[in-house]
Write a structure and sequence with these properties.
single chain; 360 residues; alpha/beta; Rossmann fold; 2 domains; 5-stranded parallel beta sheet; 14 strands; 16% strand; elongated
Length: 360
């Protein structure tokens, strides 16, 4: 994820965040302003503030400390500012402390980052007005399973992972779901990550007869496996998860390697109008910038609709199809995204792009 530099325009946007514009919706923007997460917080604040100004709403930026005891203070700041909706929230610790108080105040929350199952389970159990613009943990595996069942069902398939918690859980979830559908891998293994070469691994894959390999591991390891398979003349189609969206080093990724990943939102056709407007103001729409802008747009539309229909904003957030710069967004009754944002992408040249359709 590219870090947004603190340009003079960005500083001006941050300073303007607490300002009021013409009559509209009062939106709270919760994001870290200091510390290790300040650069990501700047992305959230910049994207949100851009959309606030476009819509002529008003906004109050609240610093997010990302500590267990900081959530209550964040909630009180939002209540004092008379925020109608709050967006942002990079850290689960903030949400856990803020949501009980925000429920009392009737202020719904849209996170652009937190993916934890536990936070949503607690929110649903306690009636907290919490909505998740970020994908839940399980959707990555769900898209991988759907893709494998669609494209690999007739091919000998292997599942390998790097022994990390995320890699192991991702592969195990995929494996269990595939086996429930009657599809079993011809090879499974835990490989040692961070190695300069993986020739022994690719030879074992060849011996097992695998031609398709799903990898629960980092981009750097997948690049090494792809390189060594090519050098050994072993034809392997490799697919990784969202961890593939990382720096293309030290070994460049080979063309054709696939990933189940979130798209580069700025490259989507639906994002072009907003992306061009941002660039005209010196803002490069990467990282959390477009999702934060989308969250503000959703908050605005839900609040305006709630006012017109004399309903709560939380009620209007459920089931409404919002057209945003990152695509159509609809929250289900469980307050989660109804559309899986993960996509099958493949590496071509210097970017992950939609795969080339097979020729007839």
């Amino acid at each position: 994820m590219k870090v947004l530099p603190r340009t003079p325009l960005l500083i001006a946007l941050l300073l303007a965040a607490g300002s009021s514009y013409a009559a509209g919706v009062n939106i709270g923007i919760v994001a870290p302003q200091n510390g290790n997460f300040a650069a990501l917080g700047a992305q959230i604040t910049t994207g949100a503030n851009f959309e606030v100004q476009t819509l002529q709403d008003s906004a109050t930026v609240v610093d997010e400390p990302c500590t267990e005891d900081g959530g209550r203070a964040v909630a009180e700041s939002l209540i004092t500012a008379k925020a109608q909706v709050a967006i942002g929230f990079l850290c689960s610790e903030t949400l856990e402390g803020a949501l009980p108080r925000l429920k009392e105040a009737g202020i719904p929350v849209i996170t652009v980052s937190v993916r934890s199952h536990i936070v949503m389970e607690d929110a649903f159990k306690n009636g907290w007005p919490f909505f998740r613009l970020a994908p839940v943990d399980s959707t990555e595996a769900s898209m991988a399973v759907d893709t494998i069942l669609k494209s690999w069902v007739a091919e000998p398939m292997a599942l390998i992972e790097d022994g990390t918690i995320h890699g192991r859980e991702l592969v195990e979830t995929v494996r269990n779901a595939l086996e429930e559908k009657g599809l079993k891998p011809v090879f499974t293994d835990t490989y040692r990550p961070g190695q300069e070469q993986q020739i022994a691994l690719v030879r074992r894959l060849k011996k097992a007869g695998a031609t398709r390999v799903f990898v629960g591991g980092d981009r750097s390891d997948v690049a090494v496996i792809a390189r060594d398979a090519h050098s050994e003349n072993i034809p392997l189609t490799l697919m990784g998860g969202d961890a593939m969206r990382a720096a293309n080093q030290p070994v460049p990724l080979a063309d054709g390697v696939e990933a189940i990943a979130l798209p580069d939102y700025a490259s989507l056709p639906v994002a072009q109008t907003t992306a061009q407007a941002m660039r005209a103001k010196g803002i490069e729409p990467d990282g959390y910038i477009l999702p934060a802008a989308a969250a503000v747009l959703i908050a605005n539309q839900a609040a305006e609709s709630a006012k017109a229909e004399n309903k709560s904003i939380a009620d209007k957030l459920i089931g409404t199809a919002f057209q945003t710069p990152i695509g159509q967004i609809t929250f289900g009754q469980n307050h989660e995204l109804m559309e899986n944002p993960y996509r099958l992408l493949e590496w071509r040249g210097n970017a992950f792009v939609p795969p080339t359709p097979p020729s007839n």
